[in-house]
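Suppose you are handed a protein chain with no further information: no name, no annotation, nothing but its sequence. What can you learn? This example shows the usual starting point.
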Amino acid sequence: MSFKICIDSSVIVKLFRKGEEYERESLKLRDEILSSTVNPIVCEWAYLEVVRALVKAGYPKTKIIQAYKILKEMAELDFINTVSVHNLLEKAKDLEVELNLYASDAVNLATAVLNSKDMLTEDKHLLRENVRDYMGKLGLKVIRLKEFYPTH
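A reasonable first move is to predict its three-dimensional structure. Written in structure tokens, the prediction is:
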């Protein structure tokens, strides 16, 4: 049985970019996803957020398109569970207002809240104390890669 957790693009992009902070942890996550030990849940916007992050980093277009295709294939092969934005809109709106989040962050957090799963992220907006407190009240956590894979 695999461990289910929500992840956002701040973590997913680390699966494709060498030299990223927490590279060791992200490679371990990738291996655990591909071995079905970890089964991530993502909002469908994650595909486009990863593309944007790679464009901003100056990645070659061919590698960006390849990363997009790999993510889509991982979802088609059930290595990743994808949630439609349509199913998240109301909760995301509430989270934007209550926690003062950007739309993309609210959609990612709504994915975790509505699936009752912890959120694995490196996004500074989702790591804020008010977001962690909100999730804590629901019995959920916002976790960083270094917390998910402690070095000791």
